[in-house]
Design goal:
The protein has seven helices and no strands. By secondary structure, the chain is an all-alpha fold. It has one domain. The longest helix is centred in the first third of the chain and has 30 residues. The chain is globular, with a radius of gyration of 16 Å.
């Protein structure tokens, strides 16, 4: 059983999407700037970026049980774990990732998509994010 609400997972998805969009934009700009030999300028601009910080703050504010559930949902979405093995995945997340932190979860490529797919596979689809979700 998940120790995190669907609403919190929807928030995690929204923050992860915001971070992914920012990172993709930064990657494109880095490539263009390095081609123009101005890479140092974008590095300085990225240092003040907030999308990663917002996602990190959100994940950091979750309890360890919530973080373990979030990781288990991502594993299910990625296809590494079958939905019927949710409880075992949560136990594994707690055991193997005792120090789950924001860097570990943020470092999962396509985190938002894995969370969406995981919730779908668990029978809790998040078809559309609530437009009233406000990100800090």
């Amino acid at each position: 059983m998940l120790a995190i609400s669907t609403l919190k997972i929807a928030h995690a998805i929204a923050y992860a999407r915001q971070h992914d969009n920012s990172a993709a934009s930064w990657d494109r700009q880095m490539q263009e700037d390095f081609e123009q030999e101005l890479g140092h300028a974008i590095l300085g601009a990225f240092a003040g970026g907030t999308s990663r910080g917002a996602l990190a703050d959100f994940i950091g504010a979750l309890s360890k049980d919530e973080q373990a559930s979030l990781l288990a949902v991502a594993w299910i979405g990625r296809g590494a774990v079958h939905p019927e093995d949710l409880d075992a995945a949560i136990r594994k997340a707690k055991a193997e990732h005792i120090d789950i932190d924001d860097d570990y979860l943020i470092g999962i490529p396509l985190l938002a998509e894995y969370l969406l797919d995981g919730m779908e596979k668990l029978g809790f689809p998040i078809a559309d994010l609530d437009p009233n979700i406000r990100l800090a």
